Amino acid sequence: MLRTNWLWGVLAGLALAAPASAQFYQSDLVARARVFPEVGPGVRAVKRDAQGRAYVLVSLAAARGGAASSAVLLYDASGKQLGQIPAPATQNSKTPPLVYGVDFAVDSAGRVYIADRRGDAVKVFNPDGSLALSIPFAAPTSIVVLTDHELAVASTKSDRLVTVFLGPGAP
């Protein structure tokens, strides 16, 4: 209780310390142009690699009006679309390789690791968009490549908050 009162006292002191002439502004953010105009709604995550390429995780149902699935769209540094992961040919099959991607990571070799929450797996795709590996994992929600050979995955349905895997190419 004493800590709480102390914190409120500090915050009140900071507020009173602002000069009477201080002005606070509220502003609206307005975009002048769309960075990835063909994407539309449904963006879940955006990341850049060391070469400046942008990877954009999108819901294809929201972005393209198709069946419910997800994909990572790849753009060069100037904003030109280079490709899609998984590759479009595999995305149209009866069982898409990626159902509901919520987060992803890219390693130094260009492999893309996607947390497929509805697919209950971590999907690993080669740089060409082909599925390299599917790791069963209950409802993954977040993913990060720790090194070229380690992968950390978070899930609220796992026994552990974060699980670390050895990735492809591990000795």
Structure in words:
The protein is globular. A hairpin with a 6-residue loop joins strand 10 (150-155) and strand 11. The strands form 3 sheets. The chain has a 4-stranded antiparallel sheet. A 4-stranded antiparallel sheet has the order 5-6-7-8, with no helix packed on it. Strands 9-10-11 form a 3-stranded antiparallel sheet, with no helix packed on it. The chain contains 3 helices and 11 strands; from the N terminus they run αββαββαβββββββ. The protein is mainly beta. Mean pLDDT is 78; it is low at 1-16.
User: Helix segment count?
Assistant: 3
Radius of gyration: 21 Å
The outline comes out as globular
Strand segment count:
11
Helical fraction: 10-25%
Low-confidence stretches: 1-16
Q: Measure the end-to-end span.
A: 53 Å
> Largest beta sheet: what is the strand line-up?
1-2-3-4
Largest sheet: 4 strands, antiparallel
What is the mean pLDDT? 78
Strand portion, in percent?
Answer: 35-45%
- Reading the helices and strands in chain order gives HEEHEEHEEEEEEE
Q: What would a concise description of this structure say?
A:
This protein has helices at residues 2-17, 60-64, 88-91; strands at residues 43-48, 54-59, 70-75, 81-85, 101-106, 112-116, 121-125, 131-136, 140-147, 150-155, 162-166.
Explain the layout of strands and helices.
Elements: H1 2-17, E1 43-48, E2 54-59, H2 60-64, E3 70-75, E4 81-85, H3 88-91, E5 101-106, E6 112-116, E7 121-125, E8 131-136, E9 140-147, E10 150-155, E11 162-166
Antiparallel strand pairs: 1-2, 2-3, 3-4, 5-6, 6-7, 7-8, 9-10, 10-11
